[in-house]
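Quick start: what a row looks like.
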Amino acid sequence: MENAAAEPSLIPARMINEYVYCPRLAYMEWIQGEWRDNLDTESGRYAHRRVDKKSGNLPDSEQPDDEQPIHARSITLSDDDLGIIAKLDLIEGDGSRVKPVDYKKGKRPHIASGAYDPERVQLCAQGLLLRKHGYSAEEGEIYYVASKERVRVHFDEDLQQTTLEAVEELRSLAHKDIPPPLEDSPKCPRCSLVSICLPDEVNWYNKLEEAPRPIAVRDDERIPVYVQAPYGTVRKKGEVLEIEAGEQKQQVRINEINHLALYGNVHLTTPTLQTLMQREIPVSWHTQGGWYYGSVQSLGQKNVHLRISQFRSAFDDAACLKISRSLVRAKILNCRTLLRRNWRGDEPQDQALKGLRECANRASRVSDMATLLGLEGQAASIYFKAFAHLIAADKLSSGFVFNQRNRRPPRDPINALLSLAYSVLSRTWAATLHNVGFDPYVGFYHQARAGRPALSLDMMEPFRPLLADSAVITAINNGELNVKDFVSHGDQCGLTTSGRKTFLGILERRLGQQITHPYFGYRISYRRLLELEARLLGRFLNGEIEHYQGFTTR
């Protein structure tokens, strides 16, 4: 499959470095627009803080003053013939004789060439740009901040040829599929894009051999903030959000949150919304009862190729059926696991477990979407008929009665909890899919409808029992909620403000819980698992892996 995008005009010199280091990394950053910071990138940004401040001037090369020393920082040069653009950290020299100095955060490597090839190529690209602008640049230097040492790099014919070849090869990537991931490479664990690239996971799917390396990826320690104070106001004050409701005020640091959810009539100031968009922190609006209205997010991911693959597959009946079968089968198996683990009833569970197993097996073999929908409905009927057996007997006798699943409106406390949990899960999936680069409204199983996040509903199917239903059972059986936390109006039941606050905390606790991945063997939180599943679906859609398996717990 060739990408239909127009060829980017100028290649940043930093991308040439990335290409020589790892072609897949360069493709993801330059073609797909992917980026994620880690400790190394933050350290590099800090090491560049001085040279990123523009100072000095680069004099006219046509009228050089040989006695005038040159010391210029943060100078951007480009050339259409070379097809390169670069921001040079430092240029030193006199008259028309100059040398670029590139800053690197680490220590000087003790190797024969003095520096690694990606760094030498990047510096050479800067030298070629200086030459195109009329200067004499025979060599450059790499300054290693950690060891405070300079390494001289001579721009000989071999290095120039290697640099120009790398430029052409990188340019050709714009018309090709993404390069395959590295295999068991020592470069991967410290790469900032490892949780996006998924090198070992993609290789595992294609080989189905032993579990991949347990590469440690920093978990996102930020948390969502829920505001449900009637007529409350959220405003920005410096680096904190100030939440005000009547006489009460509360503050939360902006860099500690990953989502802002507003319930009911809550006012959000425009400067606050602008800041959240700049920080790529989504904002969602809900009714006071928890019904999800919609979200506002920044432009986010630039990976248009993923959305092209998504839209193409959405119009392919065979692809839709293949994905849908996997998701529905996973959902049914996870429902079965929840029943098996949490059964409290006196009646045997064998019949329900057998029925769900049969539905799951048939779901993996159906030949049309209508049959799959029927099987999902049959499995849901079996599951919810048995759901009351997951509730402790003393809780059932105290008012938590469950006869059947109902919604719009929910008529009893358990259905009210299920509806709220599914709403939060849908919103969480919508934000995750947007951050990965998908359009949450174009799905494969759920039909497209105005205002309906079809892909979010698709992807949440296997996680309904694992996250939403599990949180409901925990909240009731552990006594964290009781019938006093609910209010009823006619045939409608909902949570009180304090009850909703408690239950949202239980949901977030569940999303943050760590599990051992059944295929890959490493520990991961459910919140990061959602992103992993979304990225694996993307790898399937762009043809990197041959099949997508909906997530099933052990």
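That is the whole record. Residues 78 and 324 are 48 Å apart (CA to CA). Confidence is low (pLDDT under 50) at residues 1-7.
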